[in-house]
Structures are given as C-alpha cells and as structure tokens.
Amino acid sequence: MTTFNGNVTGQGRKIAIAVARFNSFVTTQLLNGAQDALVRYGVASDDIDVAWVPGAFEIATIANQLAKSGRYDGIITLGAVIRGETSHYDYVCSAVSRGVAQVGLETSVPTMFGVLTTDTVDQAINRAGVKSGNKGADCAQSVLEMIDLKRQL
Ligand SMILES: Nc1c(NC[C@H](O)[C@H](O)[C@H](O)CO)[nH]c(=O)[nH]c1=O
Ligand SMILES: CC(=O)[C@@H](O)COP(=O)(O)O
C-alpha cells in the first residue's frame, strides 16, 4: 500500500491570491496572514501575486483567469461574506463557493477557498488573525501541501 502526503514546501512555487475588497478591514488581515505564511514556508515574495476584486462574488472569475494563465502553481482566494438583513448573503456564498470549487476541478490548479462566511463581524475578525486563527494562513499551508501532493501522484 502506498500512502501519499503533501509536503508543505514553498521553494520555487508561484502563488496567486485573489482577494475581495469588500470588508477590507477583515480581508486585508487574511491577505497578511497568507503572505506571511507563504514566505515563512519558503515562497519568494516576488513569486506571490495579488489580484484585488470588488467583492466575493467576483473572486471565482479572476481565480479562473489566474489558474488558466499557466503562471501559477496554486491559487488562494480570500474574502469575507458577512450576513446582512436580506438573502443576498446566501446567493453570494453559494456563488463564490461553487465558483472557486469549479476553478480547481476544471483547471487542476490547486485553488484554496479562503472566503469567510459568517453571521457576525466578530466571527469574521476572529478568523482573520484573532481568537480563531487566520484563514489566510491556513490556505497558504494547504495550497503548498496540495501542490506537492499533485506532483507526487
Ligand atoms: N455583502 C458582501 C458582498 N457583496 C458584494 C458582492 O460580493 C459583489 O461584489 C456585488 O454583488 C457586485 O457583483 N461581498 C463580500 O465580499 N462580502 C459581503 O459581505
Ligand atoms: C453578504 C451581503 O451581501 C450582505 O452583507 C448585504 O447586506 P444586506 O443583506 O443587509 O443588503
């Protein structure tokens, strides 16, 4: 029996990050977490590209273009969708989650879903570097693991 585990190594990897500007007080912290983790794992800062989009709904479109460019070993998507008074939250969450998943499946480029979907502002803040970790840093580790795992298979 052969068991495969991806190594979290960043040497020589090229990563693109698609991040939403909406709720930038949260998404900026997610981006900082992702960039800091990638560099700590050995990714050269010059090999990290960042694309800012208006909101989470636009993330998948740009992630798709980044993945299909052939320039990147992996993609990280970052956003913060915080529930409001209407059902708009549900449509945005559904669209971005399905869209990001489709990018990874269609392109075979590891594409991480780092979009927070929360009921409150506090929940989002806590997941962007406060009491509940940093989803951006989590995605940095996961994308490097997935890149290496794919190279083993
Ligand atoms: N309410 C949130 C949004 N809404 C904006 C949409 O993402 C989109 O930009 C707009 O509908 C135009 O297409 N976006 C977030 O990222 N977070 C939210 O909480
Ligand atoms: C996630 C959203 O789109 C939401 O923040 C919009 O707020 P509202 O539903 O009150 O218009």
Automatic annotation (TrEMBL):
Pfam families: DMRL_synthase. (2S)-2-hydroxy-3-oxobutyl phosphate binds at E85, T86, R127. Keywords: Riboflavin biosynthesis, Transferase. CDD domains: Lumazine_synthase-I (cd09209). The active site is at H88. It comes from the Bacteria. Gene3D superfamilies: Lumazine/riboflavin synthase (3.40.50.960). Belongs to the DMRL synthase family. Catalyzes the formation of 6,7-dimethyl-8-ribityllumazine by condensation of 5-amino-6-(D-ribitylamino)uracil with 3,4-dihydroxy-2-butanone 4-phosphate. This is the penultimate step in the biosynthesis of riboflavin. This is 6,7-dimethyl-8-ribityllumazine synthase. It comes from Lactiplantibacillus plajomi.
